[in-house]
Design brief:
With about 325 residues, the protein is of the alpha+beta class. Helix content is about 30%, strand content about 30%.
């Protein structure tokens, strides 16, 4: 399988048109013209017909949405996702969404406080940040990484098929790109360091957003915010660093807390103090000690797993 998200959208459009009734002569000519215009169109059309035939045997919400969604928009999105992913991977993805297959059974994971490098079958390199988990599906038809939780840095190389990253909010597509992807509760953040990446939210019916190198964007299931320049801390974790440029102390401690077990709290009185610098992630205790030198704060350690940063008396 080798076709773009735009071609997938076009194939879904024609399938839905045909399922609403017989095409009139003008529509039939337009479909035939589209089909013959490029071999990519023919591959996408053949593939979506096979996927459509397999839908009724798939006990998953995604298949149900593709067959029975109350609105054409949600049905279109379900069909497009099935077309891009392939029915087999979509079934596994749907089980993940229902938490029938938890992140504990992920193909690769990194525990809290640790980072991990994985060499993928096509030569691409995947790095997992603290507390992260992914599933990887690579075969002759697709290259798919499903981010179950946490954050990854992917250095992809060009291949016969596009490289896809699926998150809780949507699908990222690229060829040869270097990108950082972080899963939050209600949105995904993607930063592109080289190449370009297409962003297609789950419940968005328009064309995908193209994110160029040195830009980052947050997106939800319905859309995205304005792309902006990559920030200093984006991807720095892969080099074992936490970068702060006039960062609020509360936000800094929230980031640092991702690499430690237990609670790292910030007293509201000091939450808005600003901090800058480069800090090695492998020694969070030393970072806390440095805070007492550089800011008017006191670090109170009730236990190793319950630490509060508060105003110095």
């Amino acid at each position: 399988m080798n076709f773009s998200t735009q071609v997938a959208e076009q194939a879904v459009h024609w399938l839905m048109e045909m399922q609403q009734g017989a095409l009139n002569p003008r529509q039939q000519a337009a479909w035939q013209h589209w089909l013959n215009a490029h071999s990519e169109h023919q591959r996408a059309w053949d593939h979506i017909q096979r996927v459509n035939q397999r839908l009724r045997g798939m006990p998953s919400p995604l298949a149900h949405a593709a067959l029975n969604a109350p609105t054409s928009t949600s049905r279109r999105q379900a069909l497009k996702l099935l077309l891009i992913l392939g029915a087999g991977s979509a079934a596994a993805w749907s089980l993940r969404q229902q938490h029938i297959l938890p992140p504990l059974t992920a193909d690769y994971r990194s525990p809290v406080g640790q980072r991990r490098k994985v060499q993928l079958a096509d030569g691409s390199q995947l790095q997992l940040n603290t507390g992260s988990a992914v599933d990887v599906h690579f075969d002759g038809q697709q290259r798919l990484i499903r981010l179950l939780e946490g954050e990854i840095l992917l250095t992809g190389i060009a291949g016969a098929t596009p490289l896809h990253v699926l998150t809780g909010q949507g699908l990222l597509s690229s060829q040869a790109a270097r990108l950082n992807v972080r899963q939050f509760n209600d949105h995904t953040q993607v930063a592109v360091f080289s190449g370009r990446v297409e962003v297609m939210p789950n419940h968005y019916s328009g064309l995908p957003l193209t994110v160029e190198a040195a830009r980052q964007v947050n997106f939800t299931r319905k859309g995205w915010d304005t792309p902006r320049a990559t920030d200093a801390n984006s991807g720095a974790w892969a080099d074992g660093m936490l970068m702060a440029a006039h960062m609020r102390l509360e936000d800094f401690l929230a980031e640092l807390g991702r690499y430690r077990r237990g609670q790292l709290n910030c007293d509201p009185q000091v939450a808005n103090l600003l901090i800058s610098g480069s800090y090695p992630l492998d020694d969070s205790e030393r970072i806390l000690d440095l805070l007492e030198i550089s800011l008017p704060v006191k670090v109170r350690r009730f236990t190793r797993y319950w630490v509060t940063v508060q105003a110095r008396a």
